[in-house]
Design a protein that fits this description.
single chain
Length: about 190
């Protein structure tokens, strides 16, 4: 118990020194918490590079925002920061949404005349929504899902960042999901009956 209290009081002192720009305090905190934060990120992601990137981003943020970010408990702060970063990363990587996996694997031949009509409506709606996307978002979406290019390839081809590609894809998918999900499920129910 005494060790924990001692550790917390030394962290408080180190965090105070860090706020003042003390690089040795930062290094000490980094060495003390990096492995635990990395393990937490890796446990959630299962990917060494992504886990390292996340922890590096968090510690960079702590350093560059040291004067404005107030941290009382670094262990708790890191736990929440890792969780939030993982959620954001996973959300961006899930651009190949299950919605599209099901759509790709759906068989148009099943289900008879009603199903065929609904599929036709579905694809017409899909095309209309894609055409209504802002031009750059539409271009990125088509490159990813119609031409099957990876986000890195799209970014290089269009001269934009991977993050921009991911953001635009996320917005496009959200638009399609909201607009098409009910019709899609109706088609799937009819197709399987």
């Amino acid at each position: 118990m005494h060790e924990i209290e001692s550790s917390q009081s030394s962290d408080i002192l180190l965090l105070r020194l860090l706020q003042e720009g003390n690089t040795r305090a930062f290094d000490t905190l980094f060495e003390k918490y990096w492995q635990k934060a990395y393990a937490d990120a890796y446990k959630r992601l299962g990917n060494h590079d992504d886990a390292k990137d996340i922890v590096q981003d968090i510690f960079s943020h702590i350093w560059f925002n040291r004067e404005t970010t107030h941290i009382d408990n670094l262990a708790a702060y890191l736990h929440v920061a890792v969780r939030n970063k993982v959620i954001k990363l996973v959300a961006k990587q899930k651009v190949t949404h299950p919605f599209f996996d099901i759509l790709e694997n759906a068989s148009v031949e099943t289900g008879g005349a009603d199903s065929d009509l609904l599929w036709k409506d579905f694809f017409q709606s899909y095309d209309a929504i894609v055409q209504a996307l802002p031009p750059k978002r539409q271009e990125i979406f088509k490159l990813r899902f119609h031409e099957d290019l990876r986000t890195k390839e799209i970014a290089k081809q269009l001269g934009i960042t991977i993050k921009t590609v991911q953001n635009q894809l996320g917005k496009a998918i959200e638009t399609l999901k909201v607009s098409l999900l009910r019709l899609f499920y109706l088609v799937m129910i009819l197709a399987s009956s």
